[in-house]
Amino acid sequence: MSLLPEFKAELKQYSLDFKEASTSSRHCEADVILVEPVVQPDYTKSRDERKGELDLTPPITNHP
């Protein structure tokens, strides 16, 4: 998955220096990591009642 051309143009408009890389190759060198959401909200419902405990994102353990 890569950045859309419209988004690249917007970044260039603001004179931002950016590089696209695979998730495993350069994340330690990045100042900012853009992560797109995996689950999109359902805006057709006003509320989503949940039962039970939800899973949490695991902590990063291989941090230098």
Structure description:
The structure is a single chain. By secondary structure, the protein is low in regular secondary structure. Helix content is 14%, strand content 0%. It is built from one helix and no strands. The radius of gyration is 17 Å and the shape is flat. The mean pLDDT is 76.
Uncertain spans: none
Number of helices: 1
Question: How would you describe the shape?
Answer: flat
Largest sheet: none
Mean pLDDT: 76
Q: Order of helices and strands, N to C?
A: H
Number of strands: 0
Spatial gap, N to C terminus: 27 Å
Per DSSP, what share of the residues sits in E-state strands of 2 or more residues? under 5%
Helix percentage range: 10-25%
Content-based structural category: little secondary structure
Q: For the CA atoms, what is the radius of gyration?
A: 17 Å
